[in-house]
Amino acid sequence: MTAFEKYLDGLHGRQIAVIGAGVSNMPLIERLREAGLSVVVHDKKTEAELGAQYEALTKLGAALVLGEHYLDHLPEDVIFRTPGVHPEHPALREARKAGRLVTSEMELFFELCPCPVIGITGSDGKTTTTTLTCEILKRAGHTVHLGGNIGRPLLPDVEKITPNDLAVVELSSFQLMDMRRSPSCAAITNLTPNHLDYHGTFEEYVEAKTAIFRFQLPGGRLILNWDDPVTHSLELPEGAEVCWTSKTSTPLNGVFLRTDGMICISDAGNVRELLPQQEIRIPGAHNVYNIMMAAALVQGLAADADICSVAREFGGVEHRIEFVREKDGVCYYNDSIASSPTRTIAGLQSFDQKLILIAGGYDKHLDYTVLAEPICGHVKTLILTGATASKIRAAVEQTECQKPDILEAADLADAVQQAAHSAGTGDIVILSPASASFDCFRNFMERGDRFKALVHAL
Question: Which terminal Cβ of the chain has fewer Cβ within 10 Å, N or C?
Answer without folding.
Answer: N
